[in-house]
């Protein structure tokens, strides 16, 4: 049923034809061909589908597409631009500092959860630029990883925090 | 989006392929055309290109374990090419060689010798070509980054690419080409960053779950929530499609008791699967969790002495110190983080299937049986999914997608839902172990006896079973049985007996290999018995193990991990406290089917709530020549965290009719706040054969956690996971 909802994703307004009750995740994957958000549980339990909605980490698998009309959705694809805008940087980096830190720490194994890890970690760093270990663990606790990468994700967030402090406009 | 197709010639058979000109969303890397797959031909393994780069054709799946990086290191080393000059391609039954499945930590173990010898063969041939071209004997040529030069005269040089262009080498793998001695390695043995990580943290990496093909339908399977006994499968009594008639384009796909739905839009398929009313005939034939171990232990079993030397009974009778230990371990789920997904395009006499399989050739054979199409007319392509640590539902989903495509007459993308994956997994089987061990007054182990009960794996996927293919147990394979490598044999005991008690499996859950199958349960029982002997002798458990291990490599990992953990010798449970929070440390050794592992655990226990927190884990692996030690460190870290998860939290639950652990709430895994600090240690052995490092420290870590619990409490756990309920019951005695 064509509905022509308009939603803003990564700073672009996109017309979508999915029914209003369709979970945002399916719209992002099937209609907008975005590969950041990933289907993990469909129940809001694991965090692999996370996106930012007005800067707040949100589970796209349990959010109806109609619920983000009039809001700004950022996916992994748009994260470097979102970061540049937030920090008022003149140039958009190729990667958010946390993405770079994940590479530097070789934090990834299968990598499927890293969409959510990076989205949630970026949200945390935008709110608390120098989080303590306890704050990191607490913020990230809703994001599961089957491969056991938590210790390296922790280090990567700490590394990104240091890197971001050094970034000048 | 183009829908143009073409037929690709493959070994005389016509198989449907998506042509390189098609826009395959999610397929940014074109798949090369069909090519020779003869393992005895060098061209099967590699191609030298005119731009002085090379493609290496690897038969092992990149699962995030770094296999593709490490195997490229091996190839680059022998070819004297830089890593940046090499690339690899997606696994595909028309493109990549059959090296067997990517399991049993095989990629480096079995894969690296094949890649190494093909690369060495190619290098020799290239040098001979260069020798002619440069009019210089091979002995006076040197190679760097694919540029062959005359020694001492760098101006006289020629590139690999210039020697062969893009043409095949047409060379057999003779096995006689010299390989580099380990002492000359420049790339092998060094930590290289993994080639898949940059794409995985950005938007570029394409997981199976994001692959789309033209004209496809979205599918979902419809099954009871949670499997019943393996023998029971699931029987349809009736289907009422009234509730889905309002969903545009939604259709029921049925073959026997296999039921699914397809629709044009994914959400419509999800809704239709939810709404379709299927009445199932489900009989209460499972033992349920509560009755599981008693039932296994009371079965008429098929018994086999796996290993026997000396006379265990006599040695135990005369020994001053005797320990007995029971260990019960639950079914564990693979629970890949993204449920498995596949795309199938089945035609009248051919098929293309894209899937998350760890064994494209094995999957092809199983699809042939399900589809009634000869294997050589089925093309299977691998696309990485999420955290596949063994035989989860990847073949099941590929079969289901194929059945649905065959029935629907269109390509079908099938995404399992969370409850499909959790509920219809081939679980890592439950186990009961009983150990007796004895030591003399000097602290030497004189006897060791292990009896293990478990059922074999299932040999049929759920989809095949539901459509009517008879189910049976899988025969053979060492990983299904009491392991002579992991039980007792690392200790220098004169009297040893290992007995496998095979439980008839049809009345239990489906089973298959799950990372380090059975080993956590083995070591949980076995290494607690060894620890008990140390305690009876009032000895430090590390010192006691040192005294009883002769093998240098077992000693190597044991000592490396103790040193890293700054282990100070003392007797376990020597300073028991009545505080609310108590702490303990433990040590353990173990492995899977090769390599050597040892671990130390430091835990904290709240005696009021029964909650155990693992604070620190140290793990050491000796896997012979470590091709990429940094990557093995990452593998060890992952194994340690997964072991903590499995020992503290993971347990498949079921009642008499169905599995009831169907998501992350009912099958909890370790969370961020609960993650221990980890210290991985790689014991490098440049002159030993590489033997795999993807699962070999889990057994030792499982034991270390159990032994740390004893150190903290003076209580031996007989069953895991160490959940608060189980822990409080054990503390109460």
Features:
heterodimer; A: 169 residues; alpha+beta; Ubiquitin-like (UB roll); DNA polymerase, domain 1; 6 helices; B: alpha+beta
Helix content of chain B: 25-40%
Radius of gyration of chain A: 16 Å
CATH superfamily of the largest domain in chain B: Aldehyde oxidase/xanthine dehydrogenase, molybdopterin binding domain
Work out the number of β strands of chain A: 5
Order of helices and strands of chain A: EEHEEEHHHHH
The rounded distance between the terminal residues' Cα atoms of chain B is 67 Å
Distance between the termini of chain A: 47 Å
- Low-pLDDT parts of chain A are none
Largest sheet of chain B: 7 strands, mixed
Tally of alpha and pi helices of chain B: 19
Write the CATH architecture name of the largest domain in chain B: 2-Layer Sandwich
- And the CATH topology of the largest domain in chain A? DNA polymerase, domain 1
Question: What sort of overall outline of chain A do the alpha carbons produce when their principal axes are compared?
Answer: globular
Whole-number count of domains of chain A: 2
Q: Unreliable segments of chain B (pLDDT under 50, ≥5 consecutive)?
A: 1-30
What does this structure look like?
The complex is a heterodimer of chains A (169) and B (733). Chain A is built from six helices and five strands. Chain A has helices spanning 24-31, 79-86, 97-104, 114-127, 133-140, 150-166, and strands at 5-9, 12-16, 50-53, 56-59, 72-74. A five-stranded mixed β-sheet of chain A has the order 2-1-5-3-4, with helices on both faces. In chain A, a hairpin with a 2-residue loop joins strand 3 and strand 4. The longest helix of chain A is centred in the last third of the chain and has 17 residues, at 150-166. Chain B folds into three domains: 35-201, 2-Layer Sandwich (Aldehyde Oxidoreductase, domain 4), CATH 3.30.365; 208-283 and 334-423, Aldehyde oxidase/xanthine dehydrogenase, molybdopterin binding domain (Aldehyde Oxidoreductase, domain 4, 2-Layer Sandwich), CATH 3.30.365.10; 288-332 and 427-732, Aldehyde Oxidoreductase, domain 4. Chain B is built from 19 helices and 26 strands. The longest helix of chain B is centred in the first third of the chain and has 24 residues, at 111-134. The interface between A and B is large, with 55 and 63 residues.
